[in-house]
Every structure is written in C-alpha cells, then in structure tokens.
C-alpha cells in the first residue's frame, strides 16, 4: 500500500523533472533516440546532435562512445536506435538480420606514421607493412624498404611495429590494406577489428588512438597506424607520415585530394546496401586507406514516431549536416553526391 | 518453535551475497558452456588466440559454428596475469611492510621543547598515515596515465635494453604502487593493535628496537599481513584499465624478459570484447566468458591458499607448538 503510493509519487516527480528538463516543447511528445558505437564518430555525432536538436526540439538524442562492435551489437538487439561503426556489417550478420542496414555518414582515412629521427619522406607499401607486422622485415635498412626509398639513408635499427590492443575500425581498415595488397597476409591473417597479431620481437600494443600517438612518441624507430582524426596530435608530436603505394602504383599521402579521389572512384561501384570497402581503391591519385563511417540501423522500428525521428535526423546528417563546418573538425570528408543519394534511399526504408 | 523475524531477516540478507556470487558463477559457466566443451582442456595451455575471420562466412567445426580460423588459447594471458601480479606483490610487500613499521614505530617524535616551538606543525604520524590511505583510493586510471606519461618513457630510456618501456616491468610497478597502500594500511592498523605489554616486555628483555618489531610484533600480525596481501592480490589480478595502458598488449607469445609486452586476463577481456560482439556466431564472446571463468578460479584459488596459510593449517611450525 505504502510502497505503491511511494512509487506513484516518485513517478510523478520524475515526470515533472523530465518535463522541466526539456522545457520548450509545444508538441507534447518528445522522441528520444540513443546513438552508441565508434569512438571515431562520437565527436562528430556530438557536433551534429547539438546543432540538430536546437532546430528540432521534439527530438532528444543521447550519444555515447563505446566501440564499433558495441554499436553493431546493441543496434541489432534494439537497445539503441543508431549504432555507429567504422566497418560495415558482415555478410553473416546481414544474413541473420536482414533488416539491419549499413548507412555511410562520412568518409574517414588513416595515416601510417613513423618515428625515425632525421627522416621525413618515407615511402611504404602494403606488402612491406605486412612484412613488418608479421616479423619478416625487422630492420629499417631491409632491402625491401630501401627499394621503395632510393636516396634515403635508412638507419640500421630494429623496427618497433605498434598495433591497437582494443578492437578498432582502424585495425579493420589497416588489415584490409594489407589483405588487399598482400596475398600472404590475406591467407594467414585476414582482416577485422581485432587481429591475432603475430608475435614480433619488440612489437607492442597500445590502447586507443591517443595511446598509439603516445606509444609512437615513446618509441623511436617505431611505426603505427593512426586515424586521420588525430592528425593534429601526430603533427604536434613531430611524427612522420608515410606515403603509401596505391593500386595504381603511385605513392600518395592522405590529403583532401587523394582521399576524395578514392571516394570518387568507389562512389560509382557502391552497391545499394552500401557495404563496400574503399581500401586500396583504383584511381591514379587514390589514397589506399580510406573508409566509409557507418550508421547501423534497423529498418523495422517498433513505432512510427521513432522511425520518423531517425529518418529525419539521418537524412539531415548525410545532407545538411554533411558539410565541412562539422566534418573538418574531425578531419572527415563529405560523401560524394551519388553516395548521398544511396544513403537517403536506405534511410527512407526505416519504417 | 518460535519464528524470530529479526534473525530470519538477517539470515536472508546475509545469504544475498553468496547467492549473488553463485548466480554470477553459474551464469559464467553456463554462458561459456559451449566454448568450454569446444575448447577442451588445451584451452589452458595453448598460446595462440585468434578471433578468426569475422567477415567471412562462419564454419562448422566438430558440430560448433564459429568464425573461420578461430582458435582460443589463453596460456599467454594466464602467465601474463600471474607474472605481473606476482612481481607486483614482490615489489609491494617490502615497501608496504617498511611503510607500516615506519608509521607505527619509527615516526620521529619531537622533543617537548621543539614541539612547543613548532606547535603550528600538524602531528606527523596521523598525517602520514592518512596520506598512505589516500593513495589507496586514487582511481586506477590515474596510475595508468602516470605509467604511460612518466614510467614507460623512463624505463624505455634508462632501463630497457631495447628502448621499449611497455611490458611486464611497467605493469608490475604500476600495480605495485596501486596495492602498496592497501597492504601498508592494513598492516599499520594491526601493528597499532599489538598489546603494549608484548612490546614493552620485549624491550625489558633487552631486545633492540629491530628485534622488538621483528620478533615480538610481526609474528602477531602475520595473518593480517597475509590478509592484506590477498586483498592486494585481488585488486592486482583484476586490474584492467591501468594494465591496458602500459602492458604493451602482448599476444600469441609468452614473456621472455621483464620488458616483454604482456596481456592480463582482465585487460584482454576488455580489449577483445568490442570485436567479439560483432561475431555473428557469438562464439567469441563465449570464449571470453570462459577466460573470465578462469580468472575467477585463479582468484578463488589465491584466496583459499591465503586463508589456509594465515590460519596456520599449512604451517608446520605452529602446529608443533
């Protein structure tokens, strides 16, 4: 008796508090959405949500940073409405959950950085990186590295390959670059957000992109793969950025030009479900490690109001929100127009 | 028979904790069941851990569906956990015994005249004791940050022959700092509880201060010391974030030196969980639950061993006496 009264009072108090919290609305119903997943997309979602919800007071969106795997798992289970992932859904997941969609929201890329005193113009290729990360190439003056860098005096020093310990979209696209350009890696290590890294003497693992920057700074003669969002930190730490061999046989740095070249070359072949890798894309100027950043969303939502709110928010993300004002802060690039159309077509399936 | 409501209530409440523990264990064992029967016992002495190719179609091995190339062996993580925690205890015990004895016995006491002059000074002993206890409540991630910003570069520059600071030694030192105050403050409290008579009788017999502490006081607090070490070991075995930041995340290899990268069970579970969640067969998460179960068994074994040690059941000398 007493308990129910207490509960009722509590609920009433909560309702009042909630109403006070979201003051303004003239519409009675507020739809709440939850986004979780990729820590790379998290800062971008925060920028987007802040702008979007000031204009759309009938929606409240909570953003959380957990990891791409959690974004995928929780959106499948229906715990969150929007999962954020650096990687698209695998065929097996799509087969098991046909109503799950991978919708690109932006384009990111990755740098290969090194800490080599006195050297600023290093060139590397997928097979050489695969050799370094499997322990076949152990010294900086190895003939395979020297062959890519004529005229550069490479130090006679052991290489310290640094990889991510935690599951990561960066590991996903890095291992894809190795798998797509080196047949040996493809057959032994595959690609994925966690790799069973071969035991390389001197190799170390670091936690998160900030941990990668610190580890590379702490380890002269080290090499690491770091998400482009951390370009400023890498620059501040005075670390080198390698030119990578692309599919066309050219060495390229990740710049606005080379990243959009990769995006353009994949735009025309992107299928309707948009699950495609942009890694090692064709094109003379295409940078080889580029990827779509995805929203993982269920097409069948429990109610129409939620579905409408997700549709409107994501449509804004890939159109009105897909501009440098937001994207530049995390060093992302906007989607090509053809891909925006595909994303909108997928978003419209959310019912 | 009369019903005693108070006793019944207290009984129910006291049963809650063991019940929760049993529920967790049963859940872990049940959830990991498929992985346990698939992996068999060689799970414990295989060095290779591979989640497999989560992006190709799952395969069926011996009737179990799992990602292609998946292989689960946890020897490296068991060795990493035990070696880092063991080393941490080796570093922490002398430090904390020293600190506790200093606090209880050797804190300088000012002469009364000096005391009067320096009356603005706070009493030294309680302030120092409080400081030691304060260190025990510093969140582990703070130790991790200190490790990555100060300790790792230091080891890399001055100690490690390869120039790499991440690994077993850095992990052990960070863990040791984290657990020293736990042992020290338990021991300090126990030393204060030693009856005045024992201490003074030892002095009366002509013992030096060192002998008083080592022969009259330490034997009385032995079981408390063991208890403190177990508490500390529990924290070291289960520490996650700080370890993840400085361990170097060794995979598929056993540590060969103090500077080898390692992974501990707890930190490894955290680092793999996100990828495991995107495994359509969910075998990866089950295998992680199996490692968690192994960690639970290790912790339990450590606790039981310590209980036996401190109760004297394994101590031949005390049984004879």
Q: How many structural domains in the coordinates of chain B?
A: 1
Helix content of chain A: 40-55%
Major sheet details of chain A:
9 strands, mixed
| Structural class designation of chain B | mainly alpha
Structural descriptors:
heterodimer, A: 351 residues, alpha/beta, D-Maltodextrin-Binding Protein, domain 2, 2 domains, 9-stranded mixed sheet, 3-stranded mixed sheet, 14 helices, elongated, B: 321 residues, mainly alpha, MetI-like fold, two-stranded antiparallel sheet, 13 helices, 69% helix, globular, disordered C terminus
Write a brief structural summary.
The complex is a heterodimer of chains A (351) and B (321). Chain A has 351 residues and is an alpha/beta fold.
Walk me through what this model shows.
The complex is a heterodimer of chains A (351) and B (321). Chain A is built from 14 helices and twelve strands. Chain A is of the alpha/beta class. Chain A folds into two domains: 135 residues, Periplasmic binding protein-like II (D-Maltodextrin-Binding Protein, domain 2), CATH 3.40.190.10; 158 residues, D-Maltodextrin-Binding Protein, domain 2. In chain A, strands 1, 2, 3, 4, 6, 7, 8, 9 and 12 form a nine-stranded mixed β-sheet that branches. A three-stranded mixed β-sheet of chain A has the order 5-10-11. About 5% of the residues of chain A have low confidence. With 321 residues, chain B is mainly α. Chain B has one domain: MetI-like fold. In chain B, 69% of the residues lie in helices and 2% in strands. A two-stranded antiparallel ribbon of chain B has the order 1-2. In chain B, helix 1 crosses helix 12. The two termini of chain B are 45 Å apart. The C terminus of chain B is likely disordered. At the A-B interface, helix 3, helix 4, strand 7 and helix 9 of A face helix 5 and helix 11 of B.
Write the layout of secondary structure elements.
The complex is a heterodimer of chains A (351) and B (321).
Chain A lengths: L1 H20 L9 E7 L4 H14 L3 E7 L2 H9 L5 E4 L5 H6 L3 E15 L8 E2 L1 H9 L8 H6 L11 E5 L4 H13 L1 H6 L15 E3 L1 H11 L3 E6 L3 H6 L3 E2 L1 E3 L5 E2 L3 H12 L22 E9 L5 H15 L5 H4 L9 H11 L4
Chain B lengths: L4 H35 L19 E3 L2 E3 L8 H32 L5 H6 L6 H13 L3 H20 L8 H26 L2 H9 L4 H9 L4 H17 L2 H6 L18 H13 L5 H29 L4 H5 L1
Antiparallel strand pairs in B: 1-2
Helix pairs in contact in B: 1-12, 2-6, 2-9, 4-6, 5-6, 6-9, 7-8, 9-12, 11-12
